[in-house]
Amino acid sequence: MAPAEQDALAVRERLFHEWVRECIICTLLFASLYILCHFIITHFKKHTDFAAVHDDEDAAVNRIALGLCTFTLAVALGAVLLLPFSIISNEVLLSFPHNYYIQWLNGSLVHGGWNLIFLFSNLSLVFLMPFAYFFTESEGFAGSKKGIMARVYETSVVLLLLTLLVLGMVWVASAIVSNDAASRQSLYDLWEFYLPYLYSCISLFGVLLLLLCTPFGLSTMFTVTGKLLVKPRLLEDLDEQLSCTRLEEAAVSRRISSGKASCWLNLNVELLREQFFAIRSKRRKLELRHRASPWQRNLGYPLVMLGLLALTGISVLIVCFHVLELLLDDAAMPRGIQDASLGQVSFSIFGSFGAALQVVLIFYLMLSSVVGFYSSPLFTRLLPERQDTPLTKIIGNCVSLLVLSSALPVFSRTLGITRFDLLGDFGRFNWLGNFYIVFLYNMGFAGLTTLCLVKRVSWAVQAELIRAFGLHKLPLPVTRSRPLGKPC
């Protein structure tokens, strides 16, 4: 064999081994995510929906839908980890460029992960989740033999009709926006243009949803933190408050036991019980604060609140700086690249510390967006409950989390949180090249986040000052419950 043929064979063998290695790594990572998501869903799902005692057919349908939901949630979790994994991989390759044990971590693996997440996100949003919903609601066509296959046929027909409807709407919308023959002709290519264009619309909706949920979630996290942690109080005697609360609880308990109501206040037993439960809850909170150590009471809460303020402030500063870059340099626009040049240069001017900060900010913004999503009045009903979440609500949660998580890389790059360019088809979204959309998006995020932060912090400081100086104990005007002169 000639030397040239031997070199070509060696190159083909190396490429084959790299492809096998990447397949094994991606399979192991996705299997780990799938197992984790399975435990999460089984923690919230309703047991009666999956019991095989009453109807084996319904139980089999629910298990199939559960598997599709687990797959979708695993894709959503992979989309969340996609950008942090890429940033960390780049920094690891910069720190250890010639280490033998990390040679598997290369640009081809990262680029393949982006393509797989994009593919599975399209598959889950367009086919799997609608199929799971229609499959659980289907009963088979009238007159057909009952069974799982009858439900599959009905679900396939309904899904086909829905797909034609959605694709027709997208075709009409694209023809209206870009009224030229080239754009309409490109829509005939289903795989290369149609699905990416549809996913671009879904991603735009997800990015807008992140814009609305993230500032609201940031303010909500301050409130939740104040409820979970023991807050320090100024000019407060816990022993005196705890003693008074115990005496009040004992007094109300004696009145309930005796069954005697006051002559001056028309109170029934039910109102007394509600008052007793409120006082007991207050007493338990005071006991919890009383048992807390001085370090936990005076250091834990301030550190956590300062950390939240620091992360929120850094995010706003980065976005403001990115707005200036958009005005001065066209290179600040979010762009997509085809080749992942990892291990060549850091994506932060502060090196590894800046890259670690970017990863923390990405997770922080994703967490705040999820908190804001489930705290908003429109989506509060989707909040899952432990061991009591029906299958339809699980499907809705999986779709919502997938929309939010798949928009996270675009969200982070559009705001300038990271300099890592979008890989694969994530960078092909048409609206990413529109300067006005990107600029207004950054301004909207900075304005909404600053407004929510100032409003929440100012209210918290005002409440603490009122409580510290005892102004909340001032007597309020009392409205009479009965007319004057009427005997009790």
Helix content: over 70%
- Biggest sheet strand order reads 1-2
Mean pLDDT: 77
**Number of DSSP strand runs:** 2
How much of the residues is beta strand, in percent? under 5%
Shape: globular
Listing every helix as H and every strand as E from the N terminus to the C terminus, the arrangement reads HHHHHHHHHEHHHEH
List the uncertain runs: 478-488
Can you walk me through this structure?
This protein has 488 residues and is mostly helical. The chain has helices at 3-44, 56-95, 107-137, 148-177, 181-186, 190-228, 238-258, 269-291, 294-328, 352-375, 391-406, 408-414, 435-468, and strands at residues 336-337, 422-423. The longest helix has 42 residues, at 3-44.
Summarize the structure.
The protein is an all-alpha fold. Helices cover 71% and strands 1% of the residues. The radius of gyration is 29 Å and the shape is globular.
